[in-house]
Design a protein that fits this description.
FAD-bd_FR_type; alpha/beta; five-stranded parallel sheet; Rossmann fold; elongated; Elongation Factor Tu (Ef-tu), domain 3; 3 domains; three-stranded antiparallel sheet; 11 strands
Amino acid sequence: MATVRSRPIPSSGIRPRVVARTGLYAGLAVNAAIVAYFFVQAGFASNALIVLGRLTGLYAALLMAFQLLLVARLPWLDRRIGMDRLSDWHRWTGFCLILLLLGHAVFIVSGYARPTGMDPVDQLVDLARTVEGVLRAVVALLLILVVGAVSVRFARRRLAYETWHFVHLYTYLAVVLAFTHQIAAGTSFASSGLATAYWYALWGSALGAVVAGRLLLPLWRNLRHRLVVLAVVPESDNVVSIHLTGRDLDRLPARAGQFFLWRFLTRDRWWQANPYSLSAAPDGRTLRLTVKSAGAGSAALRHVEPGTRVFAEGPYGAFTALHRTRPDAVLIAGGVGVTPIRALLEDIRGHIVVLYRVRSVQDAVLHEEMRELALARRAELHLIAGPADPDPLAPRALAELVPDIAERDVYVCGPPGMTGAVRGSLRELGVPRTQIHFERFSLAG
């Protein structure tokens, strides 16, 4: 088979994800050092517990601002790191934040209670009554504890996304309350004009990033592009493709492999946003998403009328050709995870091998157009249908299908179980981590 190859992609050099990750870590480290400087400059209390309480409170404030940056959905970060990884960092940073806030409360209350001999609860009540901002801090801590409780994996799986998201919105109220507490009672905050300016700049930048990334940018893009439904095309009994058009779509910075949060502005669904990947590479004139019915919201899309306005947030995701490291690629799709893989097949250059895993041939959505596209691109397409045992994507099977798989970029998209198993197989075959690309479509914040 003849092969069309693009210019080789260098396998060395600094990758976009490394640049973004290093930038985040470096920024956090620099700000941690600045906070330590202002803490020392403000002087120490005679009580060691109060000193520890103030220090943990300052670093909690820093982590809270960092949390806002992680959920701001800034395009530069999202394209390089991916919303799924940012969500993971947000989650673990959140648990660290809770520990710091609890430490701050315990150390401060114990420190003030020691010389007075008061019970810690009575001391907390006294501080809330007599010190400005303490009551607001208590309310902020309670709100963050509630948000943390619903973010635990056990609870998160039992809540609808809309419920979880509504509870999470109280985090912004907690941030405002915590900041006003810092203004009123923060010794380091008021220790010098420079310290005050630093904290205002830190909080202003973090809140400004959230407003810009989650409010202003989506509003501006939707006013500019004015997306509407062009056509609704059934692909099977439970899968439908929706074609969209709009203005100046050639200026929308969407790439194959990315997804949007879609709101179809019908009378009964305008309030509901769902993440769906593009199932075709953007061509500057139309966008396409392909959806499998998994609930009332996705099933209702089959009945959306052409001409319906659509509000889209995005594009999001790092599952793109931006992260290529090798000239050739393997695209592995499972079930409806074929949608971003289908778009990548149209976009990625070099020799491509596509492995499409389904339970039965009847489940192979978009297979016919993928076959035609593979022929046009001179790519290899393997439809793998059948039971899960034995695993048709086990290391030996992958090595037989793609003998040079360790020399290729590998893109994997499918159900979590399949994605995890394939990643394990790739590690056994010696595929470097930098060549394995996957993305879980989880929402940051």
